[in-house]
Amino acid sequence: MDKFVIKGGIKLSGELNTSGSKNSSLPIMVAALLAKGRTVIRNVPDVNDVKHMIKVLEYLKVRVKFNKNILTIDVPKKLGYIAPYNFVRKMRASYYVMGALIGREGKVDVSLPGGCAIGERPIDLHLKGFRELGCDIKLEKGYVKARCKKLKGKELFLQGTKGSSVGATINVMMAAVLSEGITIIKGAAVEPEVSDVANFLNSMGAKISGIDTPVLKIEGVENLKPTEYTVIPDRIEAGTLLVASVITGGELFLKKCNPSHMHVVLEKLKEIGYKIEIGKDNIYIKSSKYLKPVNINVLPYPFFPTDMQAQFISLLSLVDGISIVSENIFEKRFMHVPELIRMGADITIESNKAIIKGVKKLYGAPVMASDLRASAALVLAAIAASGESEIRRIYHLDRGYESIEKKLRKIGAKIKRVKE
Ligand code: EPZ
Q: In 3-state terms, what secondary structure has residue 91?
């Protein structure tokens, strides 16, 4: 297992490129199964979750090549239909094969994903959507077994107690594109990644309208064709890199990003006091001496993303005054907080709220990463802290951040990957 050794307290400044979106790439790779033949997907980040999804596709008898962020996916006529426990256990997003295989084959056995470090994460909305489209779903020995003939389009409502679901919207949309008639998904998630998958499906010949809105209309088509497509930039990686520069008092010119997907995050950075200039596909950010605390309410897009919550807690732990961050999507997603406290942060958790009292300094310490964004938060704290930090279990980071240490080194960080 690798760990990072980081010497903190160095100003990080320079220019960086944003990578492609992990959370778009994963479902798009699976959506490619909906058409026989060769699909080419560009701007796919070279991260371990993508490599894992390649294995899932290969298990389903698909040939995949991955070179320089370009994925070539050769989908055969006959596909496998089982996603075993071993795959789904390692990456929940493996469950996207449900939507694509229900749509294409009318048959799929997928291991039920279990719990996860950030919360319970049920899949009831996915199953509700499939059932309403006419799929017979049984839960047997830890597996979801779905069987159906031709799905029939229908109007359905896809929100649960926490609001919309990114995964359920994408999964049901993938199942519906080849159905008979019209499916209307009300209460659809409007995250840019959902729209990216919808645009990808349309480039294959699907007829999806209402993209970027909570009401998606999907007119079923007979078949889809392979396509070429470029994935959107990763808005969470972009946000993380912006924070990396200003948490150290630096400045960054971030290229190849999509600022229109980052509205609330950029607004919050401005509210704290950072100087920001926004271009069409780039952002310039500069630190400031005059910073003030902010309150953040984490909610589905277009509000503040849960995937940036941990990184902002690191940032706010160094901003004088009291900031309150309320997490309303994964209420227990605060595993980074005890580790930040070990580095000198002053944070109290009260139910779904983190109350952060800014401190003057964080101090390097050995800490443990627990999930992808918690790990990012610890790296951010470590580059800002005085002294040396060791971050263990960085395999979480490798799942979702492309060349993170190379990017940070490029803007001046002293970060080493060490084998334990
Ligand atoms: C996606 O997860 C992302 N993962 C997550 O990113 C992200 O945190 C999350 O969306 C929210 O933005 C991928 O795209 C691969 P949801 P997903 O379904 O689809 C509840 C990262 O760090 N819910 O939108 O699983 C659920 O418990 C990861 O990159 C149900 O109740 O999230 C949560 O409270 C982590 N029933 C809320 O909805 C369901 O059937 C939103 O979850 C489904 C979800």
A: coil
